[in-house]
Each structure stands twice: as C-alpha cells, then as structure tokens.
Amino acid sequence: MKIFLVLLALAGLASAQTPTPPAPETTPLQGFWRAVLPGGIYRVRLDRIQSVSTHEYTIEPLTRVTELTIDTGGAVVTRFYYLEILTPQTPMGFGQSAVDLIKEKTEDVANKVTGDTGVWKKVTKIYPATTHAHTVEYRVESKDDIRKLMSSAEKAWSTNHGEEIKLD
What we know:
Largest sheet: 4 strands, mixed
Order of helices and strands: HEEEEEHEHE
Low-confidence stretches: 4-10
C-alpha cells in the first residue's frame, strides 16, 4: 500500500512538471497594417482593405503629387502623398536663376504660412476647393516614403500577416 501511495505521488509530480505547449503566438498587429508617421498613426484591419493603389498627377502647373490610397469600402478613404515642386527649365539656361529664385521664395512663403518646416504639418485643406469629406491624409517627406508604404501595405494585405512601418 505504501508503494502504491508513493507511486501515485510520483505520478502526480511527474504530471505537474510536464511542460504545457506554448500558446499560439499573437501580436497586437495580427490581422492589421499600421503606419506610424510624424503626423499620426494609421491602422487598418487587413480584411477591410479592398484596394491599395498609387498614382501621380500634376496640380497647378508646378506641383506633382505622388499618392498612395488605401480603400476599405467604408466611409473613410486614406491618402498618403508627396508633393514635389517642379522647376521649369528655361531654354538654354537663360533666366534659370530667376525661375529658381521664384521656386525658393514660394517654398519660403509655404513654410511661413504653416509656421513649421515639418512636411507632415503641411496638409492643407481649403474649403470647398480641396476639402475631401471622409478623407484622412498624411503628407510624407519623399517619393521613397510612398514606395515604402506601398510595399509594406501590399505585403501585409497579400500575405494576411500584420505589419507595422515607421517613417521618421
């Protein structure tokens, strides 16, 4: 009887020491794409994304926009964009310094109007010409930032694995 009790106690100890299998790994980003930018944070469920697209267009004769749009089919469209001031080239360089000076002054005025040189603080909406109801907009520093965001969003969406990208 004593041997039986000892064996029973040992069996209890052995089962208590059996390691439990690890829980499936979960992360806060599982099923989400998140972009952390100086101007804010954007987070979207991957199963809500319907399209991820980029395109370029010109507004006014001197500004080119490179834009990434994330469509979720909901009420809000998200846009990430880079603005590039185009400098016209004069024939044979005549008067090019005057054109360059105008570009520089235009950029100076833009910086004074916004009160800061941080590009993310320069998202400007002028009602009614540029107001986009239900649109969240992030302005980024470069075309390369748009490429990085696009690549990250496409990867997360196509693989259905959560991902985060941080832009400084």
